[in-house]
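Bug #77: duplicate submission created two jobs. Keeping one. Sequence:
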Amino acid sequence: MHSSRALSNLAFRLGDPNSWNQTDRLDTIWFKTWQHLAYSLRLRHESAYGPHNLIASAFWDPTDRHAYSDDLPDRHLFASPAKREDIVSVILCTAGNADQPIPSIWQLAMENEYNYPLVVATRELAAALCTMTRNGGNTDDFITAFLTPPSFARLAGQLHFMDSRNDSYRSVCLAICSHLMELRPSWWVEGMDHLMNEDGQALMQSLYGEMVAVSSLPDFVVEMTNECLRSGPCYDCPLVVTPLAFDISLRTYTVNPFAVYPIVDVDDDA
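Kept job's structure:
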């Protein structure tokens, strides 16, 4: 009992900006320590306070054009931001050894309640992966690790609830959808396909405990897909290909699949 409480308190302190806002740099040791604490609590069938502020602060860079500074007030601006690749690796990779692997930080975080800070962390990580991919990084394994824990329906449900509750969340929802559509179009299309065949009478719990009908999700996701296709991929991520466009497979569930969207078939161009 007491040991679990001590572990929980330590995990909370690791995620509290007051614990590290006097430092110039957020080292990966903070993440690794949280990972081991969260895993120890998991073995006790308990959960740790999420690393949302750690993730958001680690990716915050004054030169980043995404400028997501107002969405998570507890984020901290470091004078010397950590290297993006190092942070992505420590968040998405397992620890330990082959005989006793410790789940990744992202897997452990996704086992907790899907709250607003975790949604923001999803956006931050997706944007970081897009930036790395456009810079020619080998991100395929990272993207797989990133997209494995979250359920498409669960994510769609939380975004739909946010969007319907407050108009200011629209930009957050669009940023997440746009980056995910770019990172792995097949994951997005498969998720939409499964969503269309879900039991429409089923309910899922929203961010604030309210219930969202699954039947309301397909139209919302189609609407978001169309809006992202009209706008094109994120212009705040660095561009290495001009013009950059979404994969043609994403037209599958659009209202007008023959509309003139800024889309190319990336497989044909490869």
